[in-house]
Design goal:
Elements (H helix, E strand, L loop, with lengths): L1 H4 L20 H8 L10 E6 L3 E6 L14 E5 L6 E2 L14 E2 L4 H10 L2 E8 L12 H19 L6 E6 L11 H9 L14 E3 L18 H9 L2 E3 L1 H5 L13 H8 L19 E5 L6 H9 L5 E3 L1 H4 L2 H13 L4 E4 L5 H14 L3 E6 L3 H13 L14 H10 L12 E4 L7 H7 L5
Parallel strand pairs: 3-6, 3-8, 6-7, 8-9, 10-12, 10-13, 11-12, 13-14
Antiparallel strand pairs: 1-2, 2-7, 4-5
Helix pairs in contact: 13-14
Length: about 450
């Protein structure tokens, strides 16, 4: 298997330029002086959507992928380590020439799919490309984008039939396993009406299948391609299964939203059944938990009705400002809830000391949701409906959850708390919202 992949690329090697050789051809000169109206249209047309999705329509012949020829069967492929791989052996290509076919059969297999009536689509995550105007990185971003376009043009020039490419270049709803790119595919292929795509015949091939290390090959870096296909509702295959006809291998998902909800529904402790009572005429309640663990929802549904005023560093920006506002509220005899992560004893001690200085109790509410669950919640909140995101928060980087987990120390009564209430995650929402939440988002 590996020897076939190592035979080389069908792409011709780049020509070495002589030191003083001109690269201007008679064809290029003729094209320069040809009026635009008489020039052949470009084979590949690029567009940027919402400053984060790069779209290319490759049309080498008179037939187009769009409304003129409506193909309802969709053959979708990931790009890197699925259709192509680097010649250098590096994970990331050195330049636009550093590529070869993942397997030598791929051009013919793709062509046969087109002959069989499929629309050919490539959907790929390309986080190293930025489509936003950032003066600090403008030149490097332009070089990365130019190199990617050159590589795609070289790859697609092996085809004499239309191909559609979508590249997600940001951490937003377009990035797999989220389904934003699939929505754009249906729009581009004019399949949102009139029956839609043939979901039974359509499929997606990608290398991120959640497989463990096997036969000398490394474990898959993620399960995002398999999860993307599951979210869309089409069949998934790895490159080995599709191009080499190998048997499927076992895979694992590090986070299964639907299974988690099923397990959570059998537990007795959850945010809907937790009853937190007002114990003192004046006190502080300190919330402790990862971003995305449900702290703010708990405040609005449980503590706000009890009369607690919210102190949140995302809003107030600095801890000093939080302390000042909290002190002023307590001086006015108002109850205070500290809605921050409060990961470690040192951070929590600041609020314990404030309570002791004033001579009032401080209580703790500890949210136990796992890192993966919190990252999932945060992504759903930022990228789905307003129901999950009434405060219009943006998505947090992965590092925010890793950082919390590294700093976290479980709160203990000897830190000075009157009591500690433990809150496990429990989903709250209707069936439609549950269906949204149980998709794969990370």
């Amino acid at each position: 298997m590996s020897t076939l992949r190592e035979q080389g690329s069908l792409s011709p090697p780049p020509l070495k330029k002589r030191k003083f050789e001109s690269t201007t051809t008679s064809k290029a000169v003729a094209s320069f002086f040809t009026p635009t109206s008489k020039k052949d249209p470009d084979k590949i047309v690029w567009r940027v959507i919402n400053r984060s999705l790069l779209l290319a329509r490759y049309s080498p012949c008179t037939e187009t992928i769009g409304p003129t020829v409506k193909r309802r069967k969709i053959a979708a492929f990931d790009l890197d380590s699925t259709l192509i791989q680097t010649t250098s052996g590096n994970i990331f290509a050195k330049d636009h020439t550093d590529w070869r076919w993942w397997h030598l059969s791929i051009p013919n297999v793709i062509k046969q799919l087109y002959t069989d009536g499929y629309a050919l689509v490539v959907v790929t995550n390309q986080g190293s490309i930025s489509l936003k105007d950032n003066p600090k990185t403008l030149k490097s971003d332009q070089r990365s984008l130019a190199a990617f376009k050159l590589k795609i043009t070289a790859v697609f020039n092996h085809f004499d039939f239309p191909v559609l490419l979508l590249a997600a270049c940001a951490q937003d709803g377009y990035r797999k396993p989220r389904t934003g790119m699939w929505d754009e595919v249906l729009e581009e292929l004019d399949l949102n009406e009139g029956g839609g795509p043939d979901m039974q015949a359509s499929f997606f091939v990608g290398d991120a299948g959640g497989r463990a290390a096997r036969n000398g090959a490394k474990a898959d870096h993620a399960c995002s391609d398999r999860d993307f296909a599951a979210n869309v509702g089409i069949e998934f295959k790895t490159p080995e299964e599709y191009f080499l006809h190998e048997e499927p291998l076992p895979f694992t998902r590090t986070f299964e939203p639907a299974a988690l909800l099923s397990a959570a529904s059998t537990t007795s402790t959850n945010t809907t059944s937790i009853i937190i009572e007002k114990k003192n005429s004046l006190d502080i309640i300190l919330l402790c938990g990862s971003p995305g663990s449900g702290k703010s929802t708990f405040y609005w549904t449980k503590l706000k009705p009890l009369g607690y005023e919210r102190i949140n560093q995302d809003t107030l920006k600095t801890r000093d400002k939080c302390l000042k506002v909290a002190s002023n509220l307590l001086a006015e005899k108002k109850l205070v809830a500290i809605d921050n992560t409060n990961a470690d004893p040192e951070t929590r001690a600041v609020w314990v000391q404030l309570a002791q200085k004033i001579g009032i109790p401080i209580r703790c509410v500890h949210f136990t949701a796992s890192t993966k669950l919190c990252e999932h919640n945060d992504t759903v909140r930022a990228l789905s409906t307003s129901y999950f995101n009434p405060e219009k928060r943006t998505i947090l980087p992965h590092s925010a959850f890793v950082s919390f987990a590294a700093r976290f120390k479980e709160p203990k009564p000897n830190e000075g708390f009157q009591d500690i209430v433990t809150v496990e995650f429990q989903f709250q929402g209707n069936d439609e919202q549950r269906q949204t939440w149980t998709k794969y988002w990370i």
